[in-house]
Amino acid sequence: MASAPALDLKDLGPDFVRDPYPVYAALRARGPVHHVRTPDGQELWLVVGHEACRAALTDPRLTRDLRKVDPTLHPHGKDGADSPALTHMLLRDAPDHTRLRRLVAREFSPRRIAALAPHIQRITDELLDAMLADGTGRADLVAALAYPLPMTVISELLGVPAADRDAFRAWSNEIVAPTDQELLGAAYRNVVDYLRGLTAAKREHPGDDLLSALVHTVDEGGDRLSGDELIGMAVLLLIAGHETTVNLIGNGVRALFAHPDQLELLRADPDGLLDGAIEEMLRYDGPVETALPRWTTEPVPIGDTVVPAGVSVLVALADADRDSGRFTEPDRFDIRRDARGHIGFGHGLHYCLGAPLARLEGRIAIRSLLDRCPGLAPGADEAGLPWVGGLLIRGVRTLPVRW
């Protein structure tokens, strides 16, 4: 039986890119899964609602491994699916995912992440020194703090030279929010070529960095990352290691600006409220709007709808965390709320490995920003801010502030 015509998300909400939450809520009221057309023209199936999203994230019939379906289903075509840049654990199911995650997880232990706090604080202080020294009392917070902080941290952690980070930012921007198929293909090729050279250099001359460690990591069974797996892991860590935190900081500050009572509460008691504020920022307007695509290996019933085999499925993390069935008054931003249970970092097998690092960077950045800029306020009307394209990353490309 043919499926119903796809619902156009832009038709459902002309302001969908800036504020998708009313569209998601309207869809959730009709059922947990819908055949939709995205603003960039893709047709796929969208899962909404907290319970349905959590279930979809752990359903083995929704694979992350394109080798189990049709590589041309990849949103960037077979060339994207075949790129060594995508031979990483987010595109594998168990047991392959388990193996790849095991080889890198020990480098992201809570103890190792906590030990980074003084260094992250120093980087934050240097960035804020530079921002405040400008003398204008104005800045783009994304360019001044939200982007360079996590990019510096993950680049130093992996051993990427400072001179190469601007080039990597351009490749990363195109990969997470493509603007053109040719530019996207070039970004994949460039990042693979770059990392082939960098990993070769680390193999010959290892340093005290994560990439050198991954090049030489051998587990107790003698297993190690292949050359392509090493490139894929480096791409994943570099992109995921900064994109999430950039938009956690940006979205968090926007939420505080839009709710001045909450900003004042946080200023008055940062020691008591900061951890909860970070969790509420992740719940209320988190940096990842939908989980990376999954593909059905067979027909999958979700609610009263059967999603066909061989189609792309997106899980709307943003809607799951605004579901009144899980959170009381979910559209209210409340830093005193118990926001535990949100799925801003995913759920199940592919729960974000770097979540502790993102939380740590977010806490240090927000606390330091409020301490150093007691008069912090919006520098422009939010309605005119440029948004990151696509449904993966939720955030603005620039965030003017004044103090």
UniProtKB/TrEMBL annotation:
InterPro entries named among the record's database cross-references: Cyt_P450, Cyt_P450_B, Cyt_P450_CS, Cyt_P450_sf
Keyword Transport: no
Keyword set, alphabetical order: Heme, Iron, Metal-binding, Monooxygenase, Oxidoreductase
Domain of life: Bacteria
Pfam name, any one: p450
Annotated PROSITE patterns: CYTOCHROME_P450 (PS00086)
Heme among keywords: yes
Assigned protein family: Belongs to the cytochrome P450 family.
Name of the protein: Cytochrome P450
Species of the source: Streptomyces solicavernae
